[in-house]
Amino acid sequence: MSNLDLRLARRAAGSGDELSAILSLVNAPGLITFSGGFPAHEIFPVEFVREVADKELGGAAPVALQYTPTEGLASFRDALASWITSSQGVAPDGLMVTSGGIEALQLICRTLLDPGDRVLVESPTYLGAITAFSGFEAKVDSVRADRDGLDPASLEEALATGPAPKLLYVIPDFQNPTGAWLSTQRRHEIVALARRHGLLVVEDVAYRELGFTGEHRPSLWSLAPDVVVQVGTFSKILFPGVRLGWAAGSATLIPHLVRAKQNSDQCAGGFGQWLAESFLRAGRLDAQLDRARAAYAERWAAMSAGLTKHLGPEFSWSEPGGGFFTWLTGPADLDTAALLPRAREVGIAYVPGAPFHPRRDTHNRLRLAFSATTPDEIAEGTRRLGLLLGAGA
C-alpha cells in the first residue's frame, strides 16, 4: 500500500487540525492574535520560579527531576486537595494529577467510551473536547445553551430521546467559547437530572477561578460528587509551560483513570508538580489570581470598547463575567472561515465558529480571545476586525 493516508485508523482519518492551527500562532510576528486561549505572559510568576529553583531545587532534585507515581506526587496531591477543599467546600475522595486538562479528558474517554457511545455537550463547546470524544468514535450530540449556560430543559429532552448517553461534558464557568456563566439554579437542576438518569457529568473548571469579581458559584462536583468528575488545569491560572492538571471524582472511578494513564505518558512531570506545590504551600496562588482577574477584566473592557466602536448593529457578542473569550455573531450570510486568509492579510487571527459545534453547522460566528493581548493591541486588533468585517474603521 503506497498511500499512507489509506493506513490511518478510522478515528484519525476524520480528525481536524484546529488546535494545531491555534497553537501555531503563538508569538506569530506581525499578527494580533485573538485565536488562542493563552494566558497573559506578563503575569507569569517568573520571580517566584527563579527564586524557588535557585534556593530549593538542589535539595529537591530527587523528587522534582525524577519520574513520579502515576497518580501524582503524594505531597502535591495533598496540597492540591487542600486548595480544592478550600475553594469548593468539599474534599475529594479520589484525586489524580494529569498532564493538563486535555489529558484528563483523554483518560476519561479511554476508560469509559466504546465506539458508538453517545456523549452530550453544550453547543457550542470547547473544540478540544469534541475532538477528544470524536477521536474515540463517540456519537456527540449537542444540548442547547444560552447566556446562562446549558439549558436543563434541553438536557432533559436529550435524555428522553435516543440511547442513554455515557456522559455529559459541561464548562460551567466563563465557558469556552462563549464566556457564559452557568446560573446557580441551573447547576442544581443539572445535577438533579444526572442523578435521576444515572448520567456521569464531566465538569471542566479551567476558568472557574478567573471571574472578574472573584465571585464563585458552586461547582457541579461540589453539589454532586457521586455523579460528577471534575477536570481542572493549572495552565490558565499559573502557566502552561509545564502541562499540569487534575481529575477529581469518586474513589471508584479515579483508579481506573490512573490505570489508563499508565498507557499514555505514565506520569505527569515532577518539576511542574514540585513548582505548583511550592506555589500552593507558599500561599501565593490567591495573589496570582487577583493579578490575573484584574488583567483579564482590563482586557475585556478594551475588547468590549473596541467591538462597540468598530462593529455595526448587525453584529452582537457575548459579555463574559470572566475567563478569556467572547463569542461574536454576524449576519446570516457571513462565512467566518472563508475570511481567514483575508484576516491574516490585515494582521489578525481568530477562530471560526463551526469547529465549536459537533455538526459544524454554523458559519456566521467566531471566537475572540482577549487574554493574551494588551489593551493597546486589542484596540488596534478590533479596528482591523472592523475593516475585515466591512463595518468601517
Topology at a glance:
Layout: H1 10-13, H2 18-23, E1 32-33, H3 46-64, H4 74-88, E2 94-98, H5 101-112, E3 118-123, H6 127-135, E4 139-146, E5 149-150, H7 152-160, E6 167-170, H8 184-197, E7 200-204, H9 220-223, E8 228-233, E9 245-249, H10 254-261, H11 270-281, H12 285-310, E10 316-317, E11 325-329, H13 340-346, E12 348-349, E13 351-352, E14 365-369, H14 375-388
Parallel strand pairs: 1-12, 3-4, 3-6, 6-7, 7-8
Antiparallel strand pairs: 2-9, 4-5, 8-9, 10-11, 11-14, 13-14
Characterization of the model:
By secondary structure, the chain is of the alpha/beta class. Helices cover 40% and strands 15% of the residues. The protein has two domains: 8-45 and 287-388, Aspartate Aminotransferase, domain 1 (Alpha-Beta Complex); 59-285, 3-Layer(aba) Sandwich (Aspartate Aminotransferase, domain 2). It contains 14 helices and 14 strands. Strands 2-9-8-7-6-3-4-5 form an eight-stranded mixed β-sheet, sandwiched between helices. Strands 10-11-14-13 form a four-stranded antiparallel β-sheet, with no helix packed on it. The chain has a two-stranded parallel sheet with strand order 1-12. It comes from Asanoa hainanensis.
